[in-house]
Amino acid sequence: MLYHTYEITHASITPARAAARAARNILRNPVNPVSATLSGRSTAAICEMFIKATKRYGKPEFRLSETMIDGRSTPVSEKIVCKKPFCNLLHFQREGTETRDDPKVLVIAPMSGHFATLLRGTVAAMLPEHDVYITDWKDARDVPISEGLFDLDDYIDYVADFIRFLSDGDERIAVMAVCQPSVPALAATALMAEDDDPRRPASLTLLGGPIDTRLSPTKPNDLATSKSLPWFERNVITLVPWPHRGVMRRVYPGFLQLSGFVSINLDRHMGAAMKQFRNLIKGDGDSSAAHRTFYDEYNSVMDLTAEFYLQTVETVFQRHLMPRRKMKHRGRLVNLSKITDVALMTVEGELDDITGCGQTEAAHGLCDGLPSEMKRRYTQPGVGHFGVFNGSRYRRQIQPRIRDFIRAHRARSGA
Fold this sequence. Notes:
By secondary structure, the protein is α/β, with parallel strands linked by helices. The chain has 14 helices and 16 strands. A 9-stranded mixed sheet has the order 1-2-3-5-4-7-8-14-15, with helices on both faces. Strands 9-10-11 form a 3-stranded antiparallel sheet. Strand 7 (174-178), helix 6 (182-194) and strand 8 form a beta-alpha-beta unit. 40% of the residues are buried.
């Protein structure tokens, strides 16, 4: 009933939102003398804030139509190269670069509420010197229940399948996992290494990932351990209602995830909302546009399958199975010691309040079969969680290090 209540509530305020939109447009019309008054601008700002707070945000677009290569603007097009029920593998195809010897990189986007477009800046920074692919996870509410379930084991399978798909028999690819997929990416790599799979990755870069959440626990970590797994199943899992394609699928809905994201840093989000309100009154278009761009992305969330969410909570945050060397994939032990020739880099943010310092770096100790010269650790001063994979410091200081690491550990299949 929770999802149905949300949908009914959203539908019921549609007339109010339409009225607010009409009022805003009237109050901002330059021929209306009220538009120049403080009361007119304030009322228009209130209408704008109401519209933004109550609208439904769809899946954003990457909007990466070009990149700069060797000082020249190069067109970029998106192409789905592999389709699966719960994910599309997306390629950012750069026009006229067929003869370039750029490393092929698979960026594994998190399935933790936001769409893969959250990594727009991550991809944009990689495009000039890499052949980039990304996992574009689907909203679970749009996947028909006839497609079956999707859990953490399936996620690991998808990662391994995509790695194999991109390995063309020549060069082993580089893999970047951002936040949540650090665990399944590391698990998939270990399984492929143990099988001596010739298409295993050449390098694996983990950015802000929860490998060992016992270290420097954060508010999200504490929340995951403060309640039992049955509590999460009773209180945050619900059924997708009609008319969505995934009707009757059990999910952790996006609107609940968004409320959780906001509550973690409520003061920060309230402050941003008040600042936006003042900017709207002042007519500060640039600041208002920057706020709108960020929150249009931030408020775009998707549903997760119940089985994936619950298995992740249990495996990663409650039982800490990977750092305790007890994690299994379909009954098979995930042995990180079997990783002996896949270079490993970890990137953390000094001020990360989602994945605490040391949680990602813990991967190095677990991969004890990997020579030290194939390991690299980096902690970026002065950035939080999103700064690990986005923003000016990522572009200037983190991405160049990842670029050099990937190129230093390129490997041919079978090498």
